[in-house]
Amino acid sequence: MQKIMQELPDDQGGIGRHKCAACAYEQGYQDGRNRIMTIDIAQVVGSLSESQAQNQRHKSPHVAYMRGYYDGILKSFS
Fold it and tell me: Which of 9, 22, 24, 73 could join 64 in a cystine, given CB atoms 3.0 to 4.6 angstroms apart?
């Protein structure tokens, strides 16, 4: 998880400000594994906990969600 968080782009503004990028990744991963199509990623991100600790500090929760979703989809086929 640490490597994934380091690879995410910085994001310090907008709807995802102060949202937990690791939580966004995990939610995306679960949605991908379960093949749940989420139309409004901003709504998903808005419902996440606020956390800017450690490696996910100022990282984009939107990109984290999409990365998790992609990884989850790949896992669902293996």
Answer: 24
pLDDT digits (tens, 9 = 90+) for 56-68: 678 899 999 999 9
Task: Collect contacts of 69-75 with beta carbons under 8 A, ≥24 apart.
Answer: 69/28, 69/29, 69/31, 69/32, 69/38, 70/28, 70/32, 71/28, 71/29, 71/32, 72/28, 72/29, 72/30, 72/31, 72/32, 72/33, 72/34, 73/32, 73/33, 73/35, 74/32, 75/29, 75/32, 75/33
Exposed, middle or buried by CB within 10 Å (0-12, 13-18, 19+), for 69?
buried
Both tokens assigned to 16: 């995802």
Domain spans of the chain, in order of start: 2-76
Q: How many CB atoms lie within 10 A of CB 45?
A: 24
